Amino acid sequence: MSPSDQSLIGRGGRRPVGVEVEFGGLDAERAADAVRRRFGGTIRRSGAHRLYVDDTELGRFKVELDWDWVHAVDDDTGFMNKAKQLLGDIGREVVPTEVVTPPMPAGRLPELDSLVADLARLGAEGTRSGLLYGFGLHLNPALGPADLDAGPIRRVLQAYMLAAPALRAAIDVPPMRALLPFVEPFPPGYVELVLAPDYDPPLPQLIDDYLRLNPTRNRELDLLPLFAELDGERVRRMVPDPHVSARPTFHWRLPNADFESPDWTVAGQWARWLQVERAALDADELAERLAERQRTNARRESLWASLF
To answer: Which of 42, 107, 187, 236, CA to CA, is 20 to 30 A from 89?
Structure first.
């Protein structure tokens, strides 16, 4: 899988990446104003707890309380909407506020880290600030036309599965966040299927295998947006979840939003993701790692059989 003008996998600074960063302790209005001061643009309100920052130098940002119920439109514009505003204000104690960026060049992620610092100074709290906080950072690396095929997607998925235990340990997902369903690891049966050295399905089977064994958005690496982009009808038929939005990206949900750590950065999490993609680019090395894993598992099974 060698990079080409149409392939974005493994590329760095100019690679478009969308970012979703969650936090507590700060309302959407003040967070949107911080976005405007950092990137320019005009704030547009769309309800009590959702705002857009239009026409920034990067595009349109969305800033909202991450709770669908408070954004739903009701025929009753009186009591119910006031109740939603009040409950949304209360809900900030456990429901995150979220800044969603437009796709931006990865080389500009340090500027997003400056925004995170602005938010923290205004009182935004990250993953480790509260016992019930399950806040995270989501990265959405864009894919080029040459990446939207079974081979590149399968190799990135395999490279990710091989790296996943080390990534979880390095990121140090807190116990409460690990207990919540949002960043569940892939089930063992699916891992064994994908990491078999001879696993090389065509795209329809790759999608079907994923949907059959992962009919949920709640995975540390969520491929539903990508597969919905490639075959929306197939995805909707097997996973009728209205929250699945089709887009030609991976959707990496595992990183924390560790605002409290001086060493944590959005750019640093991006560097971790790039290590996965670069491992996927070396097809020969990846194949050898899969074969070695199979040999190790066979030796372990043989040892257990001899003991019992």
So the answer is: 42
Q: Decide: 102 and 59 in contact? Cβ < 8 Å.
A: yes
Question: In which residue are the tokens 């929250």 written?
Answer: 243
Cβ atoms of residues 197 and 290 within 8 Å: yes
AA identity, residue 110? P
Distance of CA 123 to the CA centre of its chain: 24
Query: Which residue shows structure tokens 């991006």?
Result: 270
Instruction: Show pLDDT as tens, one digit a residue, over the chain (308 residues).
Output: 545 558 999 998 889 999 999 999 999 999 999 999 999 999 999 988 899 999 999 999 999 997 553 434 444 555 344 433 443 444 455 689 999 999 999 999 999 999 999 999 999 999 998 777 889 999 999 999 999 999 999 999 999 999 999 999 999 999 889 998 999 999 999 999 999 999 999 999 999 999 999 999 999 999 999 999 999 999 999 999 999 999 999 999 999 999 999 999 999 999 999 999 999 999 999 999 999 999 999 888 777 777 76
Would you call 19 helix, strand, or coil by DSSP?
A: strand
Please say whether the beta carbons of 172 and 125 come within 8 A.
no
| Cβ-based neighbours of 143, under 8 Å, separated by 6 or more | 8, 9, 152, 226, 248, 249, 250
Query: What is the residue-wise DSSP string for 194-262?
Result: HTSTT----HHHHHHHHHHH--SS-SSEE-HHHHHHH-HHHHHHH---TT----SB-EE---B--TT-T
